[in-house]
Amino acid sequence: MATVEEYLRELLNKKQNNYNYSQNEERAYQYISDLINQWKQSVNKGLIYASKYISIEMQRSGSRAKGDAIKGKSDIDIFVSITDPNNQNTVKDYYESLYSFLKPKFATNSLRKQNVSIGISYAGCSIDVTPGKRINQHTIINGRSYNDHYIYSRKTNHNTRTNIQKHIDLVRNSGLANEMMLLKIWRNCHGLELPSIAIEIITVEILKNNRSVYMYENIKKVFESLRDTILNRRIIDPSNSNNNIADGMSQSEKEEVRKVAIQSLSYDHGDTVTTSKICLRSKRHIFV
Hints:
The protein is an alpha+beta fold. It has ten helices and nine strands. Strands 1, 2, 3, 4, 5, 6 and 7 form a seven-stranded mixed beta sheet that branches. The radius of gyration is 20 Å and the shape is globular.
């Protein structure tokens, strides 16, 4: 009979997805990169003066860049940084322009608009491409440059200021990537609308000064906080104090998170677990 900690470590071994890109993923990344470079050329076509050129750069981002990726969502995340020196277009314009450029390159069911990203299915890979418009101001922290960007949210039809590198550092410097991955698995098992960035921020806030050496104890602390605070909790983006991630969640979505956290706490298996108790695919159990 396995201990809870042994079970969770086995689960992480099966579900985490922080390996180097496979050969197929590298091929998919290169193909999408080539398309984005073609889009860059089309954006700048007709601009006469170099001072008007729009700079477009790519960065690998998302959970794999952070080190808390799990199987089952995107395999590849690409952040497209757009520097528009003369402010010719909005970030929404660039989002729509990139989507329109990519649309004829893929089958209908292989390209989709998502909230802040464009989802692509190619060569068996799931790819998320997020365009962001760079804000000229940036900060230097410990010699590293952090560039702020606006990204466009289709859900709210508003721009949000964010900083991808700060999000990466939040996870990488936390020492809590395992707990974050387990919470993402839990979220996915129960079909909860709880953004990954929200999970990462909440995990750091709850555990940074109050962590156990046991992952299960840490997970329980997060469940308890979700039970007690999620309905009214502010989830502040570390790169933008005016961006409350919780504003993007509906009240019913928050209530569902709270309900499942309560359910999960009620199935505390103590020191040991059995396959019949915890591995079944059922919302009655914490993980599957």
